[in-house]
Amino acid sequence: MTANDKTIQGPKNEAPVANAYELSKQYFDTPRKLKIITAGAGCSGLDLAHAVETGRLKNIDLKIYEKNAGLGGTWYENRYPGCACDIPSHNYLFTWAPNPNWSSFYVSAPEILEYMEDVADKFHLRRYITTRRKVIGARWVQEKQKWEVVSRRTDGRRNVVSAQGVTAGEIGEDIIEECDIFINASGFFNAWRWPKVAKREEYEGVLVHSADYNPAVNLRGKRVAVIGNGSSGIQATAAAQKVASHLSVFVRNPTYITSNMGSRFIPPGQKQLYFDEEQKKKWIEDPQSYLHYRKEVEKELNIRFPMFIRDTPQQALAKDFTIKDMKAKLAAKPELQNLLVPDFSVGCRRPTPGTGYLEALCADNCEVIWGELDSFTKTGIKSADGKERDFDVIIAATGFDMSFIPRWPIIGANGTDLQKEWTKNPACYMSTIAEDMPNYFVYLGPGSPVGHGSLITSIERITLYVSDIIRKLQRENYTSFKLKPGKALSYQAQMLTWLDKTVWGDSCQSSFKNGTVDGALHAFHPGSRLHYFELLNRHRYEDFEWTSGCPEPELDFAWFNNGFLEHELEPDAEGDPT
Predict the structure, then answer these.
(1) CA nearest neighbour of 86 among 348, 457, 453, 356
(2) Which of 471, 472, 547, 445 is CA-nearest to residue 146?
(3) Dihedral sign from CA coordinates of 305, 306, 311, 315
(4) InterPro entries attached here (predicted)?
(5) Which terminal residue of the chain has fewer beta carbons within 10 Å of its beta carbon, N or C?
């Protein structure tokens, strides 16, 4: 070793010793201060902020950057006619923020957004959120054991698109900021897709995407077109038909319109249940009764999962019931039955209750156009059969990029670009961790329980899982963790093998397969949501590599600190000495 080598090596050896000395002055289990940067202030970002605010995660400097002008994610962005949640309202909430004041069994997007804003205020979560700030990239710096996150301010527009190569709304210079942990909570319902139809720019009327809809658009008495019959298209169709003078619905694929989720809690013959003030008051005064009700509703949703397994009695029953129900509702226009009723399994496409949708299609002022679109025209749409139709308003309910590919470059260890890697193969561990991405988490990544039940409950479980790993970093003197090579691929192999027996893999065009018929089932968890929750409770730390803040062997246990618990020497500290 040369003299120069010693000069370079010296400071590297001194730093761990200094670190160990500082640790020796602290009480055992004192959490090291960490900085977290999170992209996105939807449900995931709010739940993480709550973990910090309530002390589940201590000594954390949390920054949440939200590209839009307000918090709320999906429920902030989506304002199309009829936008609502088909999960029962009393299950679509944070368990730490119960809401006995929901107006009805299923609630609209504005009411959900109001709930999220109220939660942010009540629990003091806005202090962590910076709106109009868009993350555009991140890079792991191995020498510093930190992420460099790049962001830009946005110009104040309500919705800012988050998609590869899209810079609309970004202003100012790059803002580069370091953090110990980077969390992607940006979601996947935000990179909307326009229909791949020629001459879209030539249309001179009002053209809006359901994901960027302006409620000021007046549909009353207008000739309206809705393109698409996914969840958004179904809801928009049912709402638009009530006020439009004429409605044309462009459909390419059949889909099941199922019974409402948790429908046994709704009185027979009704599609909705509105809660009166007496019921709300009872739940407020008797929280245990309210909790029991919520658990009963959730149980009803969870026990439906066997329906998604191919050739089960539950699947056969669901298919038989749904087909009979759809044909009965389409009796006024029997020609629609063969077009709209699928032959694939129920659940291959996302089951959509679609209250009022089939009735809208059968209305006198509604026309269903089957097949591909040829092109837009100056005044409307030309269908594949050559017929041109004129419209005042066209609503494109044509979905999102559901590929799970990060919207911006994320450069991890060894120069690995997650954006490029997941373009080839989105292999993910527990839906939250990617290979070669130290100190990086993603909410609801590939392999999430998106097929059934409330996603908010899943988000809460992910936060608990992420929090456990962060606390280990803080308390055991680790500067980083990283998934061991091959673990993501092994996890994915198990996932895809198990999913092969589900109806999600049947031949149907599905958003879960990113709009394809036969795409890989990267979206789904290999099991029920309860199975996923239990897995998140398992701490398989042997699947990770850990980097110590004191790499020298003799300092490996410097995290024992001063050998005392705080309450042993601090009279005012809480703790039981027995």
Answers:
(1) 453
(2) 547
(3) negative
(4) FAD-bind_Monooxygenase_sf (IPR051209), FAD/NAD-bd_sf (IPR036188)
(5) C
Model pLDDT for residues 54-93, shown as the tens digit of each residue = 999 999 999 999 999 999 999 999 999 999 999 999 999 9
Mean pLDDT, residues 357-367 taken together = 97
Structure tokens at 164: 């590869």
Q: What pLDDT is attached to residue 13? A: 58
What 8-state DSSP symbol labels residue 274?
Answer: B
Q: Which amino acid is at 484?
A: K
Q: Are 185 and 45 in contact (CB under 8 A)?
A: yes
**What domains lie within the chain, and their CATH numbers?**
25-70+131-191+402-548 (3.50.50.60), 200-261+304-396 (3.50.50.60)
Q: Provide the Cα torsion 252, 85, 314, 508; round to 10°.
A: 20
Q: pLDDT of 135-177, one tens digit each? A: 999 999 999 999 999 999 999 999 998 888 889 999 999 999 9
Global model pTM greater than 0.85: yes
**404 vs 422: CA distance, rounded Å:** 7
Report the alpha-carbon distance of residue 370 to residue 277 in Å, rounded.
45
Cβ 470 vs Cβ 479: under 8 Å:
no
CB-side exposure of 436: number of CA atoms within 13 Å?
Answer: 18
Query: For residue 233, which of 203, 206, 253 has the smallest C-alpha distance?
Result: 253
HSE-up of 325 (CA within 13 Å, CB side)? Answer: 18
Q: Flag the least confident range among 118-132, 321-335, 388-402, 563-577.
A: 563-577
Identify any residues that bridge with 30 across adjacent strands, giving them in sequence order.
none
Whole-angstrom distance, CA of residue 71 vs CA of residue 499: 34
| Amino acid identity, position 4 | N
Q: State the average pLDDT over residues 510-536.
A: 93
Residue 105 tokens read as: 């069994």
What DSSP letter does each residue of 413-481 carry, written as one string? Answer: GGG-BHHHHHHH----BTTTB-TT-TTEEETT-SSB-TTSS-HHHHHHHHHHHHHHHHHHHHHTTEEEE
pLDDT band at 8 (very low <50, low <70, confident <90, very high): very low
HEC string of 305-322 equals HHHHECCCHHHHHHHHHH
